[in-house]
């Protein structure tokens, strides 16, 4: 099972944990939780969604160059009402998310907002695990609170 558990709220950010197979895999940084979506500034709503590899979206070209030995497509979270092209990817600040979860090896709180750091290292750690899970048919992610 793959799950995203929200653990803390900043002014414009949400700190989450990513679990794969019941084990903590990395921190995630998301936008704020909002009742009404603000494009590019709202995290995905709680629910159960599907994961897939997306080899055609714009980010794919950059990640193919950056991670040529392992990249097989962006890990996309699909089936989210009113959201599209939501990828698990690298970044450090809530301004990098645009609705996507960002990977991090650790976190810090600066001026009331969470940041994740060593994002690329966390991504390199979780990406192969997510690809393997998707290929085995474990392509569901549950997003929720504590």
From TrEMBL:
It comes from the Bacteria. PROSITE patterns: PROKAR_LIPOPROTEIN. Residues 4-130 form the DUF5675 domain. InterPro entries: DUF5675. Pfam families: DUF5675 (PF18925). This is DUF5675 domain-containing protein.
């Amino acid at each position: 099972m793959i799950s995203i558990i929200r653990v803390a709220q900043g002014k414009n950010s949400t700190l989450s944990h990513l679990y794969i197979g019941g084990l903590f895999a990395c921190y995630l940084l998301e936008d704020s939780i909002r009742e009404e979506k603000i494009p590019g500034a709202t995290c995905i709503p709680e629910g159960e969604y599907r994961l897939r590899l997306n080899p055609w979206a714009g980010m794919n070209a950059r990640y193919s160059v950056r991670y040529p030995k392992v990249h097989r497509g962006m890990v996309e979270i699909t089936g989210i009402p009113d959201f599209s092209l939501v990828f698990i990817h690298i970044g450090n600040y809530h301004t990098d998310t645009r609705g996507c979860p960002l990977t991090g090896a650790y976190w810090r709180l600066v001026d009331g907002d969470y940041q994740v750091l060593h994002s690329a290292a966390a991504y390199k750690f979780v990406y192969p695990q997510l690809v393997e899970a998707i290929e085995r048919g474990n392509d569901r992610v549950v997003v929720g609170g504590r």
